[in-house]
Structure formats: C-alpha cells, structure tokens
Amino acid sequence: MAKYLIRRFLQLLVVSFVISVLVFMLVHLLPGDPTTQILGANDTAANRAILLKQLGLNLPLWHQYTIWLNAAFHGNLGTSYLNHESVTHILATGAPVSIELILLSQILAFAVAIPLALVVSRKPNRALDNISTTTTFGLLALPPFVVAPILVAVFAVGLGWFPATGYVPFNQSPATNLHDMVLPAVAITAGSIAVYFRLLRSDLISTLQQDFITMARSKGLSNRRIMWRHAFRPSSFSLLAAAGINIGSLIAGTFVVEALFAMPGIGYALVQAVEQRDYLVVQGISLVVAIAFVVIQFIIDFIFTIVDPRVVRE
Amino acid sequence: MPDDRELLDTNSSTRMLGNRIPGTAATDEAVLDMQQHEPVDPNGEPLKKRPFGFLFWFAIGFVGVVLFSAILANVLPLQNPNFGNYSALNQSPSGSHLLGTDDLGRDLLARLVFGARVSLIVGFLGVTIGLVFGGTAGLISGYRGGRLDIALNAGSFIILAFPAIVAVIAIVTFWGASLFHITIILGVATIPLMYRVIRASSLSFAQRDFVIAAKTMGATDTRIVLREILPNVIPVTVTFSLITVAGLIVIEGTLAFLGLSVALPTPSWGNLINEGTANGALSSNPYIMLWPAMAMFLLLWSINLIGDRLRQRFDIREGLL
Questions:
Q1: Does the beta-carbon distance from A304 to B7 stay under 8 Å?
Q2: What is the interface pTM, i.e. ipTM, of the complex?
Q3: What is d(CA A1, CA A308) in angstroms, rounded to the nearest whole number?
Q4: How many CB atoms lie within 10 A of CB A92?
Q5: What are the b/e assignments for A286-299, b being 16+ CB within 10 Å?
Q6: In whole angstroms, how far apart are CA A105 and each of A57, A89, A259?
Q7: Rounded CA gap, A273 and A288, in Å?
Q8: Contacting B residues, span 151-170, partner chain A, CB-CB under 8 Å
Q9: Which A residues in the span 150-169 are in contact with B, Cβ-Cβ below 8 Å?
Q10: Radius of gyration over alpha carbons of chain A, in Å?
C-alpha cells in the first residue's frame, strides 16, 4: 500500500510540475510582445521596458520560471493589473462560493441517486426502473448551460420562487444563502444524478445476484439491512471513484452557473478576467484550480486504499 | 475520465468476459462454435440480436437532419442569420419566421441552423483528430508493448489529470478564440482519451490465439495490426467516439455560453443560449434561449442514445468506456 501511495504521490508531483510549466508558458504563448497585449499598442517604449522588467520578461525563460514558481509557493500569484487585487485574494474570496456550490450539488445528487437506485435495483425492469433509467439518460444530455437558463426562465422569471441572480454569504444569512443557492446547485446536479444513479443501479443489480446476498437472505436479515450493509457498501466504492471523475465537469458547471447567476465564485472571477484580458489573474486561477483538481484526485485515491485495499493490487 | 474506473474493476476475469465481442470469439472452441451455427444461450434458445428500436432510428434521424441542414445551410431557403429586420423584433413563431425573431429582428431558425455548424464541426472534427493520432498510437502501443507503451501510457495519464475545461479556457484566452483554435485544442485534448481506450482494447487482443496464429504463419506486424487487431477494436472505438463527440459538443457549448468560443455575431448554440439569457431576454422573449437549448438537448440525447445502443449491440461493458 505504501508503495502504491508513493507511486501515486510521485505521479501527483510530476503532474503538478507539468501543470505549472504549461500554465507558466501560457503568457509566452501570446502572439507578439506580451507588453503590447497588456499595455495596448499605443503605450510608450519606456513604459514597455518597465513592464518587461516588472514581469521579469528580460530574463532567460528557465530563470523566469523559477522566480514565478518561488513566488507562487509564497502565495504570490501576481496582481490584477486592472483593479490591483492580488490573485490570492481573488481566490480566497471566490473559493467559498464555488466550494459551497459543488458540495450542495453533490449532497443533492447523492440524496436523489442513492435511494432511487436502492429502490429500483431490487426489482429491475419494472415500471419505476424504466422510468428512472429513461429519465436519468435524458439528464445526461442536459449540461448546466442548457438546464440553468431553463430553470431561471421557469422558477425565477415565471414563478418567481427563487432569485435570478444574487449571492449572500452563508455566515451573513444562512437562509437567504441557501435560497439563492437552490437554482445554481440544481443546475449542476442534473448530470451528477444521472451518472451516480446509473452506476449504482448496475452495480447493485449485479451485487444482488452474488452468493453472499442469498446467504444474508437465508439468514433472515431484513431487506433494509441487506440493501444498505451488504449490497450498498461494496458498490459505494465505485460511487466514490465516479465522484472523483465527476469533479472536472462540476468545475465547468460552476463556471457556467456563477456567470449566469452572477455569483462571486472562482469561475465568475476567471471568466471576467478572460473577458478583460487580465492575463495574470487567468494564469493564477488556472494554476490553482488545476492543482486543486489533481490533489482532490489524489485524496480520493488515498481514501480508496483505505476503504478498498484491493485497488492496490491492480 | 474512463481510465480511473478500470481501477475499480478488481475482478479482471469478468472484465475480459464483458469485453468479448461477438464474432471475434474468446476461445478456439467458440470460434468453431460460431462458424457452425448461430450463437445459442444456455437454455438452448437461439440468441436473436436485440432490435435497435424506434428511439434509435429517431435519434439517427435527428442527427441526420441536423447534419444535413448544417451542411446545406447556404443552399436551404433560410434567411440571412445575421440580418436584423428592425420592423420585426422579438416576434413569436409565425409563418414568415417559423421560430420567431430575436431582439435585433434576426430569424431564429436561420441562426439555429447556422449555429449547428459550430457544434458539429468541433464535435466530429475534434474526435477525428483524437482518433487519427491517439487511435493510431493506441493501436500500435497496445500491440507492441515495451518501452514505447510505458512512456505513452504514463504521458496520457499526466495529460488526462488536467481538468480539461480549465486548460481549454486558459489556452483560448491566450491564443484567441476561433473555430479553428477551439477545434484544434479540443482535438488535441481528445488524443490521450482515444489513446487509452484503443490501447486497452488493442492490448486485450494482442495475446489472443488468432493473433498468435497469424504471427506463426509469418504475418508482418503491419498486417496483424491492420487485419487482425483493427477490426476487433472498431466496435469499442465507434461507441467511445460517439460519447466523446457529445462530450466535446458540451465543452464547446460551455465555452460559447461563457462567451469564450466563436465570436458573435456568428451564431453557435452555446452563444445563442447565452444571448437568450442576457438583458432580460428570458422574460421578454424566451424563444431565443428555448430553441437552441432544445436542439442541444435533442442532439446530445440522440448521440448518447446511438452510442448506448451500439454499446449494447457490441456487448461492451459500460464501465470500460
């Protein structure tokens, strides 16, 4: 197990290194002189030279990279050249919003997918199973940028149950915060529900055919105990892995709903920075989100080795 | 990322069984068996191929209509998608504008049809790029093994560890958003995916008896890869490619919705949905958003359904993809 984790950790380091190099290189991908991009075409040559020095762009590339990386390790990812906010500050204020969104959507997804799969898998191919299988298959074709506008049109504009935009921090008013979060969270939940339900359903159906389930039945255990303790437990591992795989599309989902609902999360900040060509902010946010993604994958793998030691042997 | 799911598959023997593709046979006995008569299930009933069903053909039809109209958009009797008729703003569907007009008086049907081009080009061309490079590499690397295989495999893991959307947004910001750039970026992002799936499939066939037999008879490596392995890999490839097309269409749509894809006024379904949500359009004229949202849903649903039915027909386990 230690060997497996060490290997995974080394992989994490390699991936993080590659991410940092690529994100660093982004600025150098700019066609032409980056100072023209940042200052505009009409600035003076003197200002250009100052900026070039400020950004350290007169140094050799590898040297620039080490300086940049060193600063990043010390929490300095540069400042927005538009409003002079530090990138670290932007990330620190945006992260709670995005993380809350992701957590809420996942709680919702599990709350729908798990009970439904448990009910349905006991009697596959009945009406309820067919309805939920068909519905969730449809949900797979509903990415957030399709669901979210429809939800707003129906529940915010039409029925007026929820606000179309807005965000109040949780510690200011938990009730308003959650109320504002309903539509954005539901919008990014649709795909997750479908993925978790379909995976769990097929896992459970095959688990329920195993001998140890027959054994449990013949011991006279209650159905609830069989479903939760005997059938669900082994299937929950794949659910965990699916959640890990799902994070990528959840990140994309938060970008969409934060933009649509004007929620001050990381995605909103990123999209605004892109629109304003605020290159250092784009660079900093990309770096942190990509590394966070890789670290989460690693943590999930780590949890895996604890709950299901069989993975290590693969 | 489908590769991680392989980790879950602790029981590799069931995976092998699940991976068996009818007509290629897992064992010699089965080969003989199939040559002589139809496959038979344990109860002695001949196994009939499950019909694809009405929905499958409906989905094929819908994708066909979208493809057809997107290709022929210039020839079809459509209005200019960028022409604003200021005497017909925000109209509901009618005889002269079948799907209505937007806040600038542009015909929504024309914008919808021309907008389909972006999604389809990115989806299908992107996957083609992935297939040509990733597929070829996967086919060879799975068959040959060795150092090349180890290096490519590790490399693909590293690239797949990236959150695609962040990488794409970052690159688009610095490189500039155009249909060409986005297709290239998403195509390149597809290469490691295609590589992994096709490598796994190629690897599982490389040690089969029919490959060893071909080798013993003195077939060249090229011949074995093209004549023995490639035909067996095709079912997995087709199914997985379709799912990936849907995935790329979603990524492009997300970018377009965020205003990071093809620039306006060129319509794409993503930026049409975005236009339909901006400036109170949801209350004044929900049709602007509704049509592209419905079209996007139907297209993704159709592609998923076709992929899923083909997967069932080819008997590929869901977890493998």
A1: yes
A2: 0.81
A3: 11
A4: 12
A5: bbbbbbbbbeebbe
A6: 42, 25, 17
A7: 15
A8: 157-158, 161-167, 169-170
A9: 150, 152-153, 156-157, 164
A10: 24
Q: What is the pLDDT of residue B31?
A: 35
Please state which of the ranges A69-83, B2-16, B217-231, B283-297 shows the lowest mean pLDDT: B2-16
Residue among B169, B277, B289 minimizing CB distance to A274: B169
Note whether B270 contacts A244, CB cutoff 8 Å: no
Cα nearest neighbour of B284 on chain A:
A157
3-state SS assignment for residue B107: strand
Size of chain A, expressed as the number of residues it contains: 314
B168 Cα distance to chain centroid: 18
The most confident of the ranges A229-233, B54-58, B171-175, B311-315 is: B54-58
CB contact under 8 A, B10 and A145: no
Residue B274: helix, strand or coil by DSSP? Answer: helix
Distance of alpha carbon B197 from alpha carbon B202, whole angstroms: 9
Residue type present at position A189: T
How far from A83 is each of A75, A80, A166, A273, CA to CA, in Å? 19, 6, 22, 11
Q: What is the DSSP letter of B321?
A: -
Mean of the per-residue pLDDT values of chain B: 75
Q: Which 8-state DSSP code applies to residue B320?
A: G
Tens of pLDDT, residues A169-224: 777 777 777 778 888 999 899 888 988 888 888 888 888 888 888 888 888 887 77
Residues of chain A found within 8 Å of residue B301, distances taken between Cβ atoms: 137-138, 140-141
Q: Is B179 helix (H, G, I), strand (E, B) or coil?
A: helix
A158 to chain B, minimum CA–CA distance in Å? Answer: 8
CB contact under 8 A, A149 and B273: yes
Question: What was the pLDDT predicted at B126?
Answer: 92
More confident residue, B220 or B73: B220
Lowest-confidence region among A152-161, B101-110, B124-133, B270-279: B101-110
Q: Is B222 on the interface with A (CB under 8 A)?
A: no
User: Looking at residues B59-76, what average pLDDT do you find?
Assistant: 84
* A211 has a chain B CB within 8 A of its CB: no
Supply A13's token pair.
Answer: 């380091």
Give the helix, strand, coil percentages of chain A, each rounded to 5. Answer: 80, 0, 20
Kindly report which listed range (A93-97, A217-221, B119-123) carries the lowest average pLDDT score: A217-221
Q: Does A32 touch chain B (CB under 8 A)?
A: no
Indicate the DSSP class of residue B40. Answer: B
Mark yes or no for CB contact B277/A260 under 8 Å: yes
Residue B272 contacts A where some CB pair is shorter than 8 Å = no
Q: CB contact, 8 Å: B184 with chain A?
A: no
Reading the block at residue A195, the tokens are 């993925």
B7·A142 Cβ contact <8 A = no
Distance from CA of B171 to the nearest CA of A (A): 7
Which of the residue ranges A125-134, B31-40, B159-168 would you say has the lowest mean pLDDT?
B31-40
Q: Give the best-scoring range by mean pLDDT among B43-57, B85-99, B147-161, B234-248.
A: B234-248
Flag if A238 and B7 touch (Cβ within 8 Å): no
